[in-house]
Amino acid sequence: MLRDLRYGLRTLIRQPTFSLVAIATLSLGIGASTAIFSLVKAVVLNQLPYSEPESLVVLWEQNPQGERGQVSTPTFLDWQRQSSKIDTFAAYRHVRYTFTGSDEPLDIPSLRVTPELFSVLGTDASRGRSFVAEEAITGQDRVAVLSQGFWRRHYDGDPAIVGRQIELDARAYTVVGVMPERFDFPPGSNIGLWTALSFDPNDAHGRSRRSRGLNVVGRVAGGASLEQARAEMRSITQALATEHPDTMKDWGVVVQPAHDELVENVRPALMLLMGAVGFLLLIACVNVANLLLARLSSRRREMALRGALGAGRLPLARQVLAESFVLALPGAAGGLLLTLAAIRIARSLPIGILPRLEQVSVDGGVLVFTLGVSVAVSLVFGFLPALQASQPQLRSSLAETAGSGGRPAAQRSLSALIVVEVALALVLLSAAGIATRSFSRLMAVDPGFVPNHLLAAQIYLPQPRYPERKDRIRFFDDALARVRALPGVVSAGAVSALPMHPVGIEFALPFSIEGKEITTEEPRVDLRAATPGYFETLRIALRSGRLLDERDREDAPHTMLINETLARRYFSDEDPLGGLIITPHGRGEIVGVVADVRHHGLDNEPRPEIYLPFEQQVFPGMAIVARTSQDPAALATTLRSEIWGVDSDQPIHDLSTMDQAISRWVFLPRLSSRLLGAFAAAALLLAMVGIFGVISYSVTQRRPELGMRKALGAASSDLVLMVMRRSMTLVAVGMGLGLLGSIAATRLLSRLLYGVGPFEPAVVAGVSVLLLAVAALASFLPARRAAKVDPMRALRVE
């Protein structure tokens, strides 16, 4: 085998053009598949980095409409007391802490967690300790555990950090521990620190079963199965619903493995990309197999002579397979280089775009995958040429002249590979075309506002510094006045939760309409607070009534705006203006109806919404948004300075344009469509190269026949049509098979599509015409060369 490898290396070095084309083709296929596999491995396949991750589960309450949501404090405590199949529960809330121990005020992503969290995860602090049960009591909960990154960035890894006090939201917290370096919870969230979560017995709102604001994780008890845990939790929740019918009637529970919860939304898209890159790898294999078959045809006399000298079928096949391995190894090396470049691009993406994106790397598993793919690829594209080489038709091969047409079996193999290549290319092109049309339809959806020239700053006021309503109102009034006065700012306003932003203060609360009976079980509405000028700034259309203005002060009668969905669903043909709606935040009169805004994504239908005047419902967190007459990103530094002019210690959580917010929200469909497009373009190029190579080889082998035809009076156009007729027949057969394959394959896209079906005739027809045009061009070039054959030179054969 080593002798065969050395011989194969020498022969390939003597044919550098053939070798470089084959290696480049393999590098493209192996590199693309390895890059996507490294992404899939890190995001989907790797287990969670906690002790016994397979027993970790996430729990949600499920409303009567089947939607999952957070858990109320009383329900969590009941689960904790009554469950035996899940032996440990923990709850947590996302918070943002103002941290001033740096050069500028920072807004730190953090969690408030019950002390059981770290035992549920099976991870303890690397320095100090984690929380103890006593620290879940209000008044004793001012303790913090730092992440390794936060500790190193802000305290230079000071080993004496345990026991020191740090200031969060202008309050002193005692550091009790530092977590290990690779610990991150939730995965990929870049949490800076964890503080103890306590349940205040005097907090009537927090103790209500209607107030659902906890995220809950648990660990299935040893000896219990997931299905047993689910059955027990359903039984407990049904009993609670019977006991508390006013707040839990028809409510259920969802128990899901933590790993599945993490990758649920991204798994379909990544698996689709893995399938697409598999198609591309197959096309690369077919292309290289074509090249090897064509090259083998020129060596048939050599192979026949080897057979005549005593070489058996196995040594002949082994020689070809050895050359396949020689090609596959540098192809794998080139593929790894492409993978490393792709990983650098992936790591530059913003945190949170994909879970565990920072863990994407070329590790041992990826290297084993690359090696396995390389071996498999060499066997796939080398098998057919090896099979051809092992068939010793000695007499016919030795009798063939250098210009003869070659064995029919070899020609049939080349033709079959062209058919396969065209079919695979059409499947990829169809998938890419449908995904691109879906993304275009998604981006054409009206978000309900005009995102151009909008700059938003998310701000959370710490309660110790802003304990009173008037303090918060004054801060945002002053900040808005400063922002509105900036050159280039057209208008400005503030809202508690911006559209398509991952953070914000927004509640899905039960409501009732005074004087109207609602038959829906516990109707719920999304509630936000907004200032005057917000709707004008986002250009949210007013449908009837008026917008919020200076009349909606704290001491004025309570008012609200509703969106079209709420008006249409609960008021039918009635005029909602003047109607009274009651929510847990009070009773208010409807003074206006505004257009629907797609707050939860372009692909999600609007939900019923209420907007309360900010002065009548003061939240500590608001997003200041400004419409500019120039590039909004250019005003970011100035806007930040104006906010710090009101309070120099106030951090800004997020400062971005609304265009950027929408781009983040549609990242996954955009990534899928673009990568599918790139793979399809590569497949089209490889198909063109493959068709060109096979037809060129066929023309070379048939030169004596073509010369004879021309000598007997055949016109050049006849020769062109003859060559193209054969190649386009193969292309037509391949497209027929590809059409059937695309109908089946694109159905797998249905979950990821918006506004289009899994089979779009116009898209398939368009990509078919494109593939036909490319195939015709790839066939025409060698056909034109066939028409220029000199009869006298072509007939001078051995």
Would you give an account of this structure?
The protein has 798 residues and is α+β, with helices and mostly antiparallel strands. The protein has 24 helices and 24 strands. The strands form 3 sheets. Strands 1, 2, 3, 4, 5, 6, 7, 8, 9, 10, 11 and 12 form a 12-stranded mixed sheet that branches. Strands 15, 16, 17, 18, 19, 20, 21 and 22 form an 8-stranded mixed sheet that branches. Helix 9 runs antiparallel to helix 14, helix 14 runs antiparallel to helix 23 and helix 20 packs parallel to helix 23. About 2% of the residues have low confidence.
Largest sheet: 12 strands, mixed
Tell me, briefly, the overall form. Answer: elongated
Number of E-state strands: 24
Distance between the termini: 35 Å
The poorly predicted ranges are 394-406
Broad structural category: alpha+beta
Proportion of beta-strand residues: 15-25%
Helix share of residues? 40-55%
On the 0-100 scale, what is the average pLDDT?
Answer: 85
Using the CA coordinates, give the radius of gyration: 34 Å
Total helical segments = 24
Short structural summary:
The protein is α+β, with helices and mostly antiparallel strands and 798 residues long.
Question: Any chance you could write out the topology, listing elements then pairs?
Answer:
Blueprint: H1 2-13, H2 16-45, E1 56-62, E2 68-69, E3 71-72, H3 73-82, E4 86-99, E5 106-113, H4 117-121, E6 127-128, E7 143-146, H5 148-155, E8 165-168, E9 171-178, E10 193-196, E11 212-220, H6 226-243, H7 245-248, E12 252-257, H8 258-263, H9 267-297, H10 300-308, H11 313-347, H12 364-389, H13 394-399, H14 408-443, E13 454-460, H15 469-484, E14 489-495, E15 507-510, E16 512-513, E17 524-530, H16 534-538, E18 542-545, E19 559-563, H17 564-571, E20 580-583, E21 586-594, E22 609-613, E23 621-628, H18 636-646, E24 654-657, H19 658-665, H20 667-701, H21 703-711, H22 716-746, H23 761-787, H24 791-794
Parallel strand pairs: 5-10, 7-9, 17-22, 19-21
Antiparallel strand pairs: 1-2, 1-11, 1-12, 3-11, 4-5, 4-11, 6-9, 7-10, 8-9, 13-23, 13-24, 14-23, 15-17, 16-20, 18-21, 19-22, 20-21
